[in-house]
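Supplementary Note 2. Why include the ligand at all?

Several targets in our set were suspected to adopt different conformations when bound, so apo predictions alone were not considered sufficient. For every target with a known small-molecule partner we therefore ran a joint prediction. The input for iron/sulfur cluster is given below.
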Amino acid sequence: MDCPRSGWIFIGRLEESARKAADWLVNKTPLRSVRDWSIAFSLWPVHFTTSCCGAEFAAAANPRFDAERFGFLPFLSPRQCNLLMIEGTLTKKMAKAARIVYEQMPDPKFVIAMGACAIDGGIFYNSYNIVRPHEIFPVDVFIPGCPPRPEAVARAIVLLQRKIREARYLKREKKYESAGEVGTDE
Amino acid sequence: MTSQGSRSSETDMGYGPGTIKEPGFRYRPMGRDAEGMELYEIFIGPQHPASGHMRIVVRLDGDIIVNADPDIGYVHRTMEKLSETREYLKSIPLFERATIIDSANITWPYVRAVEQMLGVEAPLRAKYLRTLLAEINRISSHLYGFGLTGIFINHSTMYMWSFGDREIWVQLAEELTGARLTHTYIIPGGVRRDLPQGFKEKALKAIRYMERRLEDYMKIFVYNPVTVARFREVGVLTKNDASRLGIVGPNLRASGVHYDARIAEKYGAYPELDFEIPVMEEGDSLARLLVRIEEIKQSMRIIKQVLDKMPQGPFFADKYMRLIPPALRKHVAETGRIKLPGAFIRLKPPAGEAVARGEMGHGEVFYHIVSTGDTKPYRVRIITPAFRNVVLFRHLTRGARFMDLPVIYGSIDYFPPEGDR
Ligand code: SF4
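The joint prediction is reproduced in token form.
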């Protein structure tokens, strides 16, 4: 910025500028990589089971597959979670709840859509009561399979971690910004 | 419906539908009852631990549950309607998804109903193989239920143990059928694969391991003083109420009713096997847990007998074997795996109706199929055990303490996708 008098900077509102400076700093390489590294290893999926893929999701957390070694442990409250796993079919009634859960999670948040149903309806493709998850959230990783094996869940977690560390995860897009018809209960 | 404890019926409390205006809060006061006590309404779910998929609307007076309303339908995937648009064979994978943890048991009665209409009967070996898979599934379904019960009362050890041990049975089923959960093993005319080599040794090893583990379960979970204190005399279902409400499965047998569709219907290899139906008189949550433990033991007993008595012979009905071209038939004989010709999808039962029932891990499932002589059914009606047991939420929770709700939920072993279909 060209200053009229050398040694002076126009900073405008102090809070505003401080926030911008902090944003800028956090997005610079040393801090950003520390931030992304720590996000990648603290993925807390919210405990929200939408369909039968939940059985394999639960199996992924069991001692045999032990997803916890990736820093991945289901947790109860969406307020303290940053990962939403869509475990299979999303019915219209469930989609409302899923959207509310998604809205409640703090940024940065990620979505993994698990199962053929969560990609394009799967075996229920011609059902009158299902919603495709990618229509209501930005989905980071899709897991194909019906149901996907627990190993596939583990792989999706690794993929998501890689995406996070390379800062390639989806920013919330305009399209998903407003709650829309699906998100509200009224 | 009778109410338990000192709480009187809904009308006395001065609330009902229409009192609740603004959605969006997690709980809200609902006015006062006759004694001036405030009532609260709490929405639990559909985002909650364990099986999820459902909301329970609980009305509370202090710590006492006045009424708990299960709000089902979160996993209603319209299976009955979809089955009308698919051929008979294609509906098997569809119904499997209703209870993915118990998929052999839920599709077996369907296949039996289709077989009735087609007029074929599975050979004896196929019946034994079906029984084998059904019992393996029953064990893994019960273990799944234990794990969720454990997580409900914050007993993570039980979750980890029973889900870890469930893997053994899932793996056995995978060995037999090729899929972890969605086996589609039982098809009209027989089964899809023969018994693999060395299966018996693995199954016996699994049984020996499980018998040892069940003793550990008793020590660390079932007879744990904390569990006993929370489960004993909580959510008591009397024998009279159990039969009046039409409860099925282990929940019914824990209340002292000796009823099991395996005995009543005499299907598969069950008439030739020697096993008991565990029944308990107490009807409380602990009894429901214990009945399931006993059922696991009986299932293992059945598996042992099935493996010992396994008859030789074909595992697929001759009538359909003849549809398979000779070259492929040779392949089937060599590998023990059915490869069905494309024409098999066009099974055409004559016009008519058929019903069948079977015992799943959660209870009795009932199918009613109406055919108009087409390749697709005109109507398939499924009555699943979870749907029949969901009434228990309302019935058992009245007058219980709020912290008893997870225990009651866990002990009923409700599986929402099955109830909603
Ligand atoms: S993908 Fe398959 S297993 Fe998963 S929810 Fe859909 S039907 Fe169920």
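The CA atoms of residues 17 and 23 of chain A lie 10 Å apart. The domain at 27-169 of chain A is CATH 3.40.50.12280 (Rossmann fold). Comparable summaries for the other entries are listed in the accompanying table.
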